[in-house]
Amino acid sequence: MFLSALIFGFLGSFHCVGMCGPIAFMLPVDRTNVYKKISQISLYHFGRLLSYSIIGLVFGIIGKSLYLFGFQQQLSIIIGVLMIVVVIIPYKTFNKYNFSKPIYKIISKVKSALGTALKKKTSDTFLTIGFLNGFLPCGLVYMAVFGAIASGNELEGSLYMLFFGLGTIPLMTSAIYFSNFLKGAMRQKIQKAIPVFVILIGTLFILRGLGLDIPYLSPAPISEKVSNSMNCY
C-alpha cells in the first residue's frame, strides 16, 4: 500500500502544483547560492513531510481504535467506497454543501501564519512554511488520509502519509525552479488520470476488506486463518 501512496503522491503533485504552486513560487530562496538554495528547498520539503506524517499518525490512531472494535474489514471497504464516491460525485456538489466550513477559522490562521513566514528569510523560515503548507486543505490529501485510516495503526498511518508526501517532492521542487512548469496539454492529461488512479486505490481497499484469501491483494481475515490452523490438529 505504501507504493500506492508514493504513486498517488506523484500523480497528485500535478494538482498540488496548481494549488500550492503559488506558495512554492514565493519561497524566499537564495538564488545566488546553489547549495544554500538546495538546503532551503530541502527544509521546505522536510516541513511538509513532517506535517503529513503527523496527520497520518493522528488518523492512524483513529483507524487503530476502529480496528480494535473489530471493524478491520468493514473499515477498508467503507474507505474504498468513499474514495470512489468522492471521485465520481461532481466537485460542485461538495461546494454546495460546503463540508469544510467548520474548519475555516483554522485554515485562515494557517494562511495568516504562512503570510508572516513568507516575509522572513531566517533559517527556520522554510521549515515553517513547509510545515504550515502541509496543513492547508487539499482534496488529494483527504484521499491520502483515507488510506492512513485504513492502515489500522499509527505507525503505518504516518508512513502512508510520509510516502504520499515523498511522491510530491519531484514536481513541487520543479515548481520552485520553473514557475511555468507543466502548463498545457500534458498537465491536463495527467490530471485526468488522477481520478482513475484514486478509483483503482479505492478498489484495492475494497478487495482488501472483502478478505477473498488472495495473497497480497485480498488476504483472508486473521481470525479465519487462526481457526483453519486449529482445525488441522
Written overview of the protein:
By secondary structure, the protein is an all-alpha fold. It is built from ten helices and no strands. The chain is elongated and about 60 Å long. The protein starts with a helix and ends with a helix.
List the main descriptive attributes of the protein structure presented here.
233 residues; mainly alpha; 10 helices; 77% helix
Q: Summary?
A:
The protein has 233 residues and is an all-alpha fold. It has helices at residues 2-25, 34-68, 72-88, 91-97, 104-118, 125-133, 139-151, 154-177, 185-210, 222-231. The radius of gyration is 20 Å and the shape is elongated.
Number of domains: 1
Please estimate the helix content: over 70%
Query: What does the largest sheet look like?
Result: none
Distance between the termini: 34 Å
Element pattern in H and E: HHHHHHHHHH
Gyration radius, in Å: 20 Å
Question: Can you count the beta strands?
Answer: 0
Overall mean pLDDT score? 76
Structural class, from secondary structure content? mainly alpha
Count of alpha and pi helical runs: 10
Beta-strand fraction estimate: under 5%
- Given as residue ranges, the uncertain stretches (5+ residues, pLDDT < 50) are 224-230
Rough outline: elongated
